[in-house]
Amino acid sequence: MKKQFIVHIYCLLAGMVLLFSCKKEIGSLNGSTIEDLLANASKPQLNNVVTGTESGMRNLMDFYLDDVGMIGREMYRFAGSEPRYTTDLLGGGTAVLDNNTFYLTNPWNGRYRVVKNCNILIQAATNSSLITAEERKGYLGFAKTIKAYQLLLNLNLTYTNGVRLEVNDPDNLGPVVGHPESLTAIANMLDEAKTDLTGSTIAYTLSAGFEGFKTAAGLIQFNRALAARVAVYRQQWAATLTALNESFFDLNGAFSKGVFHVYSTGPNDQLNLTFFPQNSNGEVRLAHPSFATDLIPGDDRIAKATLRTSAASLDNLTSNRDVWVYTSSTAPMPIIRNEELILIYAEAKINLTQLPDAIVALNRIRAGHNLTVYAGAVTQAALTTEMLFQRRYSLFFEGHRWVDMRRYNRLNQLPLDRAGDDVWDKFPLPFTEN
Amino acid sequence: MRQILKQALLVFMTVALPTILWAQVPVAGTITDASGNAIPGASIKLRNSNLGTSSDVNGKFSLTVPGSGGTLEISAISFKTQSIQVSSSNATLSIKMSEDVGRLDEVIVTGLATSVKRRNLANAVATISNKELTGGAPAQTLDAAMNGKVTGAYINANSGAPGGGISIKLRGVTSVFGNTQPLFVVDGVFVDNTATPAGLNTVTAAARGGNASNQDNPSSRIADLRPEDIENIEILKGASAAAIYGSKAAAGVVLITTKRGKAGQTKVSFAQDLGFVKVRKLLGSRIWTADRAEALGGSNAARRAAIRQEFLDAQAAGKIYDYEKELYGETGFTRNSSLSVSGGGEKTSFYFSASQKDEEGIVKRTGYRNSSLRLNLDHRLNDNIKIGISANYINSSADRSLTNNDNNSVTLGVALSSTPNFTELHPDALGNYPRNAFSASNPIETRDLVTNNEAVDRFVTGINVDAILQKSGKSTTRFIGRGGIDFYSLKTTALFPNSLQFQQVVQGTNVQGFTRSLNANYILSLVNNFTPSEDLSFTTSAGITQEQGDYNNLLNVATKTVANQTSVDQASALTATQLRNKYQDNGIFVQEEVGLIDAITLTAGVRFDKSTNNGDANKYYAYPKAGLSWNLTNMSFWKGDFFNNLKIRAAYGQAGNFPAFGSKFTTMNIFNIDGTIGLLVSTLRGSPNIAPERTSELEAGIDFSVLNSRLNFEISVYEKRIKDFLLQRPTPGSTGFSNEWVNAGNIRNRGLEISVNAQPVSNKDVRWNTTVNFWLNRSRVTRLDIVPVVLGAFGNTLSTFMIEEGKTATQIVGIDGANGVVKLGDSEPRFQMNWFNEVTFLKNFSLRWLFHWKHKGDVINLSQLLTDLGSTTPDYDDLDKDGNAKGPARIAQVGTSARHFVQDAGYLRLREVALYYTFGKLPINFVKNLRVGVSANNYFTSTKYVNYDPEVSNFGTGFSTGVDVMPFPASKRATFHVLVDF
């Protein structure tokens, strides 16, 4: 009996050991990992990261445009279920900007996510032994250009609160760098990218948003256009003109020539979320009432804010015009386009006191929008006001007004709609960065 | 692998063939209660064997005992267990059972394969009997039926949507980002309780705003099980009781035992419920006047005049509506039928049930339907080997409509919050719904056209093998093998036709989710009972366990759809996302229980676990446990008879909580543009070194009975510590990630549980049993290696949860004027109590009721904020104590203080009240028993909380229950019951 029992036990233990001898490691089932890419990426893998970077640039841009648009008093964003657009962003009552709320954290994190992707691309292209040196330069130039642009957008939000530039190692982030220093670093990054793109081979395909700029030469033009924008932010007027000359700037060219975010309903593609149908209710974007009242009669840019069948109101704010810049859910959103470059040219010329050149550029804008030639005072001050006025309407809801007024210390000229409202000059640094 | 398992089983079965029987004694008897009434269904077991039977309807039983006799153990639910020596000279028995008010003789499962009587238990284990589950006022689903019945639990309904969705937290905060919900085990099978979102976020964009968590309001899968089939539920509340379940047991274990057949006459039972469900409470709406209407126009004169005119026209035409009542005020008809057949012979017994439930909701086109078939079979191969098989098929379907938070103003509640009652939302004569000028959607249209359905086909089956390998006078060794599979396929369908107001941009959306979930587990163990003398017994058990899970969710989102078509290919744009989870956990355990003179029980055990979800998949983590209970009244030195029973006890145990699948990887997500495929880094950073959380729990208590066991107390205190709790903490956004997995710190919970039950009245005419339970829990974050983490709501402006060292884990913080960000409340209830009563009177009547009191415990009420912003709150114009209109005054606080969002959500609720009548003499003799009854569920609630219900959770069952954003309103139920036994 006892012996038999021992036999049983042995059988059971033997069975258990058999069952237990299998070891298992289940890999990642829901996508490739960063490590897969950094090892020795193939050209298709690198191209995937390029496409993901371009695609990701569009993420959460609706929040960025709403932030800049509302604080710059270009428009109102009403949301039935989200009060903080009309309270925090406009400084309604005693409300202030919070450092841990969606209007800041969403666009901020969205841009740094692309920066991370650019850093992965840089590292993966550097590690890859499956590409030529020219191809590598093509990847690096693209990554650095986009990275610089993304950092610039975040710097526009936090302004003198700064941004982090060194973010490659998540466990060991670089310091938060102030406004002028960050701008300098962004300019240098663009210059570095230009050097990389020079003599490079482009082994990847960009979207239709880069139509005309898909070659190395085209990407350099795009890069220099961004460099011109950064140069005016830095008030380096001569450098601005140099950059413009190497960009796709064309004083007599189409305003819409440039680089865009494009949208589609394709799988895992995105829609332009800044689009709402005209006369929507509840969830709306409305032009600030001053948009129409300040506009010169006859200006065709009135089409950017169409009249509603009935006005919309929320929280003691009312407007009867819809924002109508992006007219469908697949309408492209500009990254930078010739109309801005013409205005940058005018701005540089004004500041270099080459006023006739500036007037030529401003009249080019005026004529393009069905207006008569400039007849105001030919002074630096008057032309600056005119330049900012044209920028306000030409670049309406493209993310500029607030930044422009801040650059010229004119935030106090923005209209306040309600007693107690504030015009903020910057967002706080996000809570998680402190 | 399964092949090996089969072979192993075969080996045991062949070698463990029965010992030959030399002689036998036929035993027969009758079992009655103290007043001589027959007790049917009592269990009669021969000690140290698998032999046993049960009493029939007349309390009679017969059993053949091998050898010259032995000891019979006779037990029945709510009666004290008796042991009787039988031999050929004592073969006809008449057994009188006495009532067990304190349930001291209830048998509690303490190991994977061992059990002990409550009398000797080292833990406070809560049990819910079938009578408590379904005998009162039955709730819609199993999870709801447990609410208010478990000492030490914080159970909270996420919303009133048909089909359930309930969070169960045992003994405070077990985890922040790991699993907070207990493990459910049905007859040895680990069942899946995943809540699978239906992809509504595509339309609501709820996760695009302040909180990226899921807000789709899915149901919990445990809701599929039928309460009628359940014999009893044991709740092992923490690691000290549940440690033997190892890494799955950190949040406790809910052990469900289903009904099984008993030898004897075949019993057929049929139960039919008919009833209705109504909204528990409507909030009402603002009373409109021309001036108030005009104010909606803001500062624009034309708009002001237009709205004023709209109101005046509506008023003149008598078209001021009550949209809230139209949406939520339906009376839903409910029916529930269940048929069960059980019986068996000496070797084989069975329990079969077929049931169907069909309930309408309080919103048109919502409802819940559940059909279930169950077959439980038990077969005794011989005197030593017993096999039990259970199989359950379930088909359920829930239509849940569109509620909860959203950022597109499309859910019923959010749209309603800004829609005044004088605007026209009803379809015109042609059936066209007017566009709602006050919101992005027309809620009447949404209700009538949107489909949000969850349909489940589920199969749960388990096998239980109990084989005696060795038997002698003093020692018995068994092999106990248990295992099974839980498979379901879940289809979620969310249809948004292109004619809807909010579908103008995307022109129709069709979201279909297909989920396939397969869970398999087994436990193989050896248990040895060694009884060297009457006063000493050892139970040694050892074994191995394995659990595997494979979850695959495919979500198809089609937009630009063809009108009236419901297939995803009837669309011009289709995007698919797939989410897969897979894991395998392995465990080894040993446990020793020592019983001394039926008074002292010592338990010690250890379990080793590994999991493929850990950073190191091959590393074993050890989880020990130990327990001691000392029943003083059973000691020889004990004198006096004031105490009928007095026990002191202490238990300690550890359990783990493995990281979620994939937490060790940082993946790349698919982000395309212009038809080219792209990779963008995920916002969630993985951690290659991620380790499981470790929960350790120390519990101590004293149990005593006085007044001839008619008054019983059970008092427990516990301390539960969670070490290295898992957290998805927000990373600095500049890392490129939004969150990362970390083992962040430690949390401590301390609590007190008191349970008193009594039989204040017990005579021939009236018997009253009453139970009062009291419990509370306090948590504290004792260590946090990272900066305080805000999580679980919408940021400081609207108040949120915050994990902060030195504070409670459930604190709610927010901005408060010049004070900055301060603590504004706590979601933990100050304490909870329940009061369960059963009175039987006039012989045939029985009345049961259950009160549940949750004292304090805050909810973040953002529904009120939305109605304030929409100027529709009922008290919008009422004056506060400073003479300001309340609505505008509250709005003025937004961005300045979040204090008014944090509201006391305590309540006193009559969860169940039921009156049943049992017919004594029946004219037709094939009907053995006929009962009728009426019941009401959640009919009375007293609360200060202003929105629909203090039980609410916008974020479902995770950590952050208690955020209120336009939920599906809670309902109350009334039901008429008929039960017939044949």
Task: Write down how many β-strands of chain A occur, each being a DSSP E stretch of 2 or more residues.
Answer: 8
Total of DSSP H or I helical runs spanning 4+ residues of chain B: 12
User: Largest beta sheet of chain A: what is the strand line-up?
Assistant: 1-5
Strand-residue proportion of chain A = 5-15%
Shape of chain A: globular
Instruction: State the helical fraction of chain A.
Output: 40-55%
For the biggest sheet of chain B, the summary is: 22 strands, antiparallel, barrel
Order of helices and strands of chain A: HHHHEHHEEHHHEEHEEEHHHH
Q: How many H/I helices of chain A?
A: 14
Over all CA atoms, what is the radius of gyration of chain B?
30 Å
The greatest inter-chain interface is formed by: A-B, 111 and 118 residues
Mean pLDDT of chain A: 92
What is the helical fraction of chain B, as a range of percent? under 10%
Task: Report mean pLDDT of chain B, rounded to a whole number.
Answer: 87
- What oligomeric arrangement do these chains adopt? heterodimer
Question: Which class do the helix and strand fractions of chain B yield?
Answer: mainly beta
User: What share of residues are in beta strands of chain B?
Assistant: over 45%
Name the poorly predicted regions of chain B.
Answer: 9-22
Q: What is the class of the domain at 18-205 in chain A in the CATH system?
A: Mainly Alpha
CATH topology of the domain at 18-205 in chain A: Serine Threonine Protein Phosphatase 5, Tetratricopeptide repeat
